[in-house]
Amino acid sequence: MRRALFTFLVGLVGAALLHIALVLALPRFTGRDAYTRVLGLLEMDSFFPLAAEPGPTGLDNNDPFLRTAVCSFSIADAPARFIARGSVPFWSLSIFDSGSNEVFSMNDQTAVNGDLDLVVATPIQLVELRKMPPEALAQSIMIEMKDEEGYAVLRALAPLDSFEEQVRDFLTDSSCAPFRRQ
Amino acid sequence: MFRVPLLVALALLVAFGGGITSAIWALKATVGFGSIAIGPWVAFPEAQTVAADPYAKAHRARVGDLLYGGAEGLKFTAATDDTGARLSAACSYDISGMTPPARFWTLHTATTDGATLRPGSDLPSAVNSWTVLRAKDSSFVIHVSPVAQPDNWLAIRHTGNFQLVLTLLDTPTAGSSGLIDLAMPKIVKTGCGNA
């Protein structure tokens, strides 16, 4: 009887260890985290507008009034630049790294003139950009990202149906591309 | 003779069975620690950050949602009414009061798994701070009901339980240190069935 009890306790300790190991290791191998889903859209370096119904990757416009576009990017070779212009009642952008951790987020009121112009660079690229700032980036917000891969989420608000077209234009005209000096 | 292998098997069974079920249960039951709860409304302002706890990270990796950044907004969900009873799609509820300060807010219904409910384009399935009808003091009452209601009506066409999702956009609440007095709308059941 005592041996059975002891065995049970050993099992419980094992269960606790396994529980901790599973929770800690899970983010690395679920295969359905946000970054993997964004990569599954197979659209690098451009914003991909999501539909209202979940596509094969399971991403959709969760909020009935927010239109979302996502873009996966890599800054291994060159910094990434995000541009969007247009008048929508509200837009917001978040940059996440490959572990889906927020690196940076902003909205139209924290932007220069209400336009999106953002450069994401590695620390080394950022030093170079600061040493010889290109004229094209005079108005840009520059942020540093340690991870070389990530994704961006751009949201625009359509509070009424009549804003739909404006918002669609805003998202399709937005760009997410590597920045290279001429 | 078979006692030792039997005991080893028992220990392994308890370890694997208990470990796996408890991990899955924990990730399904909660988004993690660090929630702010105001009445039935719950939000996780730090779930998308690197500072999120291991449960929050595992949960978001399993669900794979595009989370809101700190400057974007904060998503509150409510799965119960003010008395603590689960929201049932057969019942009617009144959501009344004010939201915390935000530039914009949206309200819609979702399944208990978080998938947005879309009752059809001919029914009002969501309201926002521009379209909601308000009283003179700018408070509002929204009727969430499977049957048509006057004033603000949020239609539900679903069976079983559902949850309410209130998203505050560009809100100081997301970075709240608890200094702002947050008042969320009340959720009160007004009746069930066709009555």
Automatic annotation (TrEMBL), chain A:
Cross-referenced InterPro entries: UCP010244_IM
Top-level taxon of the source organism: Bacteria
Protein name as annotated: Uncharacterized protein
Lineage summary: Bacteria, Pseudomonadati, Pseudomonadota, Alphaproteobacteria, Hyphomicrobiales
UniProtKB/TrEMBL annotation, chain B:
Domain (DUF1214): residue spans on this chain: 73-171
Gene3D superfamilies associated with the record: Domain of unknown function DUF1214, C-terminal domain (2.60.120.600)
InterPro entries, alphabetized: DUF1214, DUF1214_C_sf, UCP009471
Source domain of life: Bacteria
Protein name listed in UniProt: DUF1214 domain-containing protein
Organism: Sinorhizobium americanum
Highest classification ranks of the organism: Bacteria, Pseudomonadati, Pseudomonadota, Alphaproteobacteria, Hyphomicrobiales
